[in-house]
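Supplementary Methods S3. Complex input for the magnesium ion-bound model.
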Amino acid sequence: MPEFISSRTFSAGEEIFRIGDRGRHAYFIESGEVEVSIPNNEEIIVIAELGAGEIFGEMSMIDDAPRSATVTAKVDTEVIEIQRSRFIQPLRSQDPMMDLLLRIVLARFRSAQNQLSGMRSTPDGVDLSLEKIRALAFERIHSERDLRRGLGAGEFEMHYQPIVSLDGGHIAGFEALMRWKKDGGYVSPVDFIPLAEATGLIIELGRLALEDALQAQKRFFDSFTKAFPDLPPPFMSVNVSGLQLADLDEIVLLASIIKQSGADPATVKLEITESLMMEDPDHAANALKKLKALGILLAIDDFGTGYSSLSYLHQFPLDTLKIDRSFVVNMDKSDSSSRIVRSIAQLALALEMDIIAEGIEEKTQMDDLRELGCQYGQGYYMSRPMPADQVIELIDTRPTW
Ligand code: C2E
Ligand code: MG
Ligand code: MG
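Predicted complex, serialized as structure tokens:
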């Protein structure tokens, strides 16, 4: 865990930060005294003296603008230093609109302060950034309204991409991928999932994804058993956002969706990204255990793009590891990518997990992955994600790869 909050002592006369510096910390004064000053032509003007119990440096922490004053310890001074990230991460991830509003208020304040102190602007021009922030806030409000409207109008639908057994060459399951049908085309989830997460709408979208996917699974199951009577029924994999798992009540709700669908839990898989699990591994482990208790399957998505701690990895009740596309794409270009894929396959084997390689676009990649011991693969080479009706048509052709 990074040290977000720590104590520090500055000696009398020592500069804590200087005008123009980037603001990485805010400070609470535990004991001692500091002087806040700004240069004015040749002179230094002291604008404030602060003592125990007071806070300084908090403004730059919010907007990341350069420091608008210099702060110096007058006597030996003990401070509590709070890192910017301690404050900024929760603020942005919880509600970016709040963050934007806070920054507008701050930008106005800075500009008024500058006028009062006779400075035309801070070193990097706050007036301009006020404009930028306003434009950003405006854009955000529009996108959020559009997302809400789309949700109300039923514009979100699921597409499905086959996941293929590299041993047998047949379809083993599907991944459900969300699409936003808008203006005659489809908007990619990379363009709307972050906003849905930032606004909390992902909760509703996530329920929708699970319900639709389980509905589709039933239809696929019927066609599949006709086309491949000897094969096990295909699993359905659904992506889950961290926000859905943050609240244990939401997990209960997801559980009830699975139960009500009548699906065999052993054919339902939830995919959670690696970065998400590592953000708060203890909470993730707890949430995953609750899900696992339902008898469903769990996968770690985009493996290799986050920073997995191996000591945590084996504590998660995971069934499947999905190797990120970036390794598969580079396999034929770089030996190291192949070696990484081989190592990940061995790691998965040691942890008794099966492995799915993402983003197979060429036959040679599929052949190489087979040889490296990957059990499953998905990618445009086999099939692109598509609407449920087209999946059924595909199953009826009894494809193998
Ligand atoms: P992901 O879960 O890693 O999904 C795999 C992505 O790789 C999909 O992108 C898929 O279309 C794409 N892909 C598959 N094969 C190939 C290939 O051969 N080449 C290339 N270039 N790409 C391939 P997509 O559908 O745009 O989804 C992007 C991400 O959005 C997903 O990554 C997932 O993190 C997120 N996402 C999608 N649907 C949902 C959802 O219902 N809920 C949540 N929380 N996230 C979702
Ligand atoms: Mg996925
Ligand atoms: Mg992935």
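The pocket of C2E (ligand 1) is lined by residues 161, 177-178, 188-190, 193, 206, 209, 239-241, 271, 301-302, 325, 358-361, 378-380, 385 (CB under 6 Å). The chain has a mean pLDDT of 87.
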